[in-house]
Amino acid sequence: MTNRVSSDETLKVKINLNKKLLQIVWAYCSFSKIVNFLRYGHFRLIVLIYFSYLESKTYPDLDNKEVLGQLYIIVKVSDTLELNNKLSNDIASGRRRPLKDGDEEETTNHGNINFLAQTILKARSRLKQLFPKGSTSNRALVLSLTHVIALAILIASIVKYVKLRSPRVEWCDGFGLLWVLYILVYITLTYSFFKKRIVDSCGHVLGRATLSLPSWVNANYLRGFCYAFPVIALGVYVIIFPGKSRRRIISFSGMLVFILIGFVFSKYPGNIKWRTVISGIVLQFIVGLLAINWEAGRNVLDCMGNKVTRFLLYSEDGANFVYGPLTKPQKDSGLIFAFSVLPVIFFLSFFVNILSYYGILQWFILKISWIVKLAMGTTVYESVNAAASIFLGMSEAPLLIKNHLKDLTKSELCAIMCAGWSTVAGVVLAAYIKFGVKASHLISASIMSAPASLSYSKLFYPETEKSKNTLDQLTLEREEGSNALDAACKGAVAAISVVFGIIANIIAILSFLAFTDGVLGWLGPLIGFDELSMKWIMSKLFVPISFFIGTDLDSIEDVAYLIGIKTVANEFQAYQKLGEWIDQKKLTERSEILATYALCGFSNFGSIGISIGALTAIEPSQRSAITKVAFRAFVAANIVCFLTACVAGRRVPHRIAIRQVKDKIKEKRAESLLSE
Fold this sequence. Notes:
Elements: H1 2-34, H2 43-58, H3 64-93, H4 115-130, H5 136-164, H6 174-211, H7 220-240, H8 246-264, H9 274-293, H10 295-312, H11 315-323, H12 337-340, H13 343-358, H14 360-376, H15 380-388, H16 410-421, H17 429-434, H18 439-460, H19 484-527, H20 534-541, H21 543-548, H22 556-568, H23 571-584, H24 589-599, H25 605-618, H26 623-651, H27 654-675
């Protein structure tokens, strides 16, 4: 009975104590609001200790720690309620935005920090209010600071250049390249600033003016004239300026033959958009004119290729650290593909995700797609891939559009693979050059093949589905991530599946080709053909191809053999053989140039495995569509390389033919003198 009474009294004491504690906390909070600065620092702890001391005197049976703990909990609860109320008021008034996924929540209690930290936090909060993330004012501040830094760098470079008094400016490096970059950037910014003010208004005026023209002007006659005019112009050019070399006329005839082949064997001949086909061929011809016959154009292309190659070669530093000497050519086996070529995919995927996180890649895609759509009428991502394939490889270029592969149609997938196989990557140009091939021809071939790949793929596999990737329907999302480093690391990790997919497919396909060669090697001696192999068969099949690209008659079979090596094995072996023949002067100069253009592409059986592995690793849901269009894309890519050789055969300077004729005359005279 006594224990029960004592417990009831203790309970009453605790209840009274809690009531008194609430009164004390209320008085304390009111006092703190009067003297605001006393709320911070260690003043709260002193007040709590003092109140616990008073309560211990009033109720000596209670533990001081229990009193202090209850006081501290109640004060913390009151602070939390006050902080939540303040946040709600700030969000309602617009002074603070609600937190989203990935945002860092501020959990710092300002009441438990010193005065200096409080000042810093207030300054940060004020800056966030003035320049919120993603706001126009924030972008304006960043652009202004960038502009000031850029001008400072430019002024410093001018001062240094004046002091050195260098008489010559290298436009591809140093001071000259800096000036070129500044001019391009500020022209782009100026155009973007005045576009809506001047260009768009002029477009509306021209649009209203065309509506007032007669009806027949806006009819199909005008469209047909626009399509036929480039073809007529090229035909007139060939007739008026045929040159004294008959092989140049054959090269132009070869272009028509290859286009006819594409039309006859097209997947859907009735759905061909001839505007895209004709525009691509005309662009290829124009690029050939600039790259082959114009020295300044060749220099620009050479400079671009060198810069892209240098950028991609930075991946060797990381590869050397991980793989060590395996990245270098081995004495017995040469370069190890997995350790020397594939590491660039990790680096490029890392860098692409950074560009995507900041929206730079999306801006580039929109600009390129607008230009290509205006010129050829193709969709966005196939156009971007074709432009990137000029300097990137067949497995690297699709990384630029990896987030959108799931939305591509079969025709667009065919165009992507065709572009990758009809060009070569910048990282392998150095190897080809070491074989004795001229860099200017290699770069010219890649650039000429880019528009032709879009053109011929749309001829060989026309679009029959409704694409989601038109410029009007385009939606580009930024790469997800808490920051740029997080997004970049995600890209590097995602490249693992791409690399392993490439390795698996190329091992399987090359092994199957070796098995096929073994069967032919066993069958050949039984039927009296000891030389029977895949290379021999392909070299004989490509003799008509070698003729139609304009190769000299003395070198037709040799060039056909090189094309066969490139198709069955790879372009490395073909260029290596071409380099040996260049040293031996086995081919004429014209045939050497045309062979360089015809071999400039990844269109071989091994590349089928590489691209299928890369694309299916990026987007597994498209595996069926990718494998269905792979063979058509492979054939189209080979013909694109032949078209490029035809254009080069038509554009090869006439002085080469004249020099060859003079050399033959000298040889015949020498032979006649020796015979006498």
